[in-house]
Write a structure and sequence with these properties.
By secondary structure, the protein is an alpha/beta fold. About 15% of the residues lie in helices and about 45% in strands.
């Protein structure tokens, strides 16, 4: 298994609920799991994240957690087919925070074109799923 150079680890309030959400609703696969620690390493189309049951006395804690977790960060996942995520969210009656919407971002002298949707996971982490639609030079 090859590991990305940056892999976010998310503390969760209910490990089983979060694992079910990420695998059942969003389609992540479990690359490996340590059930004794309520930990899972998850993958989706080249993106990797880890989830772990929050332990208030844990060594790596930087402060108390309260909903919504992950304030000030959004995690972007580039996928091939955004419509499949949107359909799955609909099938599970899971609310979409924003979108789907097409956005353009300047990247040097070009415009990056994406279709995006924002959701909050069960602990309030902001997740942005995007499908890359192309790049155009600014004068086109």
């Amino acid at each position: 298994m090859e590991f990305n150079r940056l892999i976010p680890e998310l503390y969760v309030s209910d490990f089983e609920k979060s694992l079910s959400f990420y695998t059942g609703v969003l389609g992540f696969s479990i690359s490996f799991q340590r059930t004794e620690q309520s930990f899972a390493f998850l993958s989706l189309e080249g993106s990797q994240i880890m989830i772990m049951q929050y332990n208030p006395s844990g060594t790596w804690n930087t402060g108390a957690l309260e909903y919504p977790y992950g304030r000030g960060i959004n995690l972007a996942f580039q996928i091939d087919n955004l419509d499949s995520i949107i359909q799955s969210l609909s099938n599970f009656n899971f609310p979409i925070k924003h979108g789907p919407k097409e956005n353009r971002y300047r990247m040097g002298e070009a415009m990056l074109h994406n279709k995006e949707v924002l959701i909050l996971d069960p602990d309030g982490y902001l997740l942005r799923f995007l499908q890359h639609l192309g790049v155009k030079k600014m004068n086109e």
